[in-house]
Amino acid sequence: MRKRKNLFCMLLVVLLVFSLLAGCGSPAEEDAVEEVSEETITEPSEEEVVITVAAGAVGQELELTQLAAEMYMDDNPNVIVNVLDTPDLAQDRLGLYLQFFEAQSAEVDIYQIDVIWPGDLEEHFVDLYEYGADAVVEDHFPAIVENNTVNGRLVAIPWFTDAGLLYYRTDLLEKYDFAPPETWEELVEQAQTIQQGERDEGNQDFVGYVWQGDAYEGLTCNALEWIASNNGGTIISPEGVITVNNENAAEIIDMAATWVGTISPEGVTGMAEEDARAIWQGGNAAFMRNWPYAYSLGQEDDSAVKDIFDVSPLPAGTNGEPAATLGGWQLAVSKYSENPDVAADVALFMASYDMQKMRAVDGSLNPTIMDLYEDEDVLEAAPFFGSLYDVFINAVARPSTASAPNYNAVSTAFFRAVHNVLNGNTDAATALEELELDLQDITGFDIE
């Protein structure tokens, strides 16, 4: 009972802080901070252990996490697993988590953390090797396990992975006699042609291409894909050298800026994943960049694009090869938890083969367990898991390890610089020159 009351007190304080900050924030940031419903909190008895999981709600994430919690409780009647709905935007979710960490709060036991956070947040989590993870860790992609291992400690168990994909309308490509675009130039040409053709036929809301252009972590993912696809390298190399200021990077960012207001709506610079998906799933876009989760949602009965779309690798630049940013989420157990052994058991259950299979089949959430990419049920529900397997295992990592514990500041400086170019406030060469100096101040690293 005490834990439930404390949880609501903590949440009220956190939400009050966010509401005060929202007065000087953008509308997108205000919208991203979501209320936590009292209905999601279950009343425990004195004998029961309560475990609270802070989870995401993009697409079907929250629903699938709640289902896993119910399945765990069916097998463990003395444990109550509550699922806490957290903001969609990564930086807003991180801000909420930091409030709990600063207070060393025991109210949240398990945190869903981004693939880029282990290095920055590892001090707040237990070593899952001490709670049985060594028995299952070899089932997961080694690169993700390595990402989640800090100073020999496994601070999070891989839960699902991600890589950016290009969604395209199969019916419209056939109608206009196109094959899926392999370069950004081809995408622009096709998007312009299809957009104009559909508008001429009466759909004035139709656009060629939607993506994530708001000033947040999603823009870092999009822009890193552009740069890597044009042989522009990354933001900071694994060796700790700032490499982002180069001609190939500037060229492709300037190109992306020309999409705004032409093949993409003016409002794309305020779009996150769900904004882009709403336009796409409503049947009003020829192409979309998004994560795999949008696939199963696009095939639902109320989707305007059901059975008339497919996915492919993102296009390449004129100087490079296709590239997709590595995404994904992990489950970490708070070192402030009053029941870390039970919390670890819940986390390992949620990341198990059966639970990852359920999430893959029902939500198109990419497993981190390698054997699931050969599972017949998974491949039937999401065929692209097999055909685009190389995209997922070769995805481009963000420089979270190289820049730890400063990755959040590095990414913020990067996406703000790119956002300024997209909004027409400056050109890419100027923005990247200023950015490398900002990154040097943040990290102390050398410039290439």
Automatic annotation (TrEMBL):
SUPFAM superfamilies: Periplasmic binding protein-like II. PANTHER family: ABC TRANSPORTER PERIPLASMIC-BINDING PROTEIN YCJN-RELATED, ARABINOSE-BINDING PROTEIN-RELATED. Belongs to the bacterial solute-binding protein 1 family. Keywords: Signal, Transport. PROSITE patterns: PROKAR_LIPOPROTEIN (PS51257). It comes from Tindallia californiensis. It holds the Pfam family SBP_bac_1. The keyword Ubl conjugation does not apply. Residues 1-22 form the signal peptide. CDD domains: PBP2_TMBP (cd14750). This is Trehalose/maltose transport system substrate-binding protein. The keyword Signal applies.
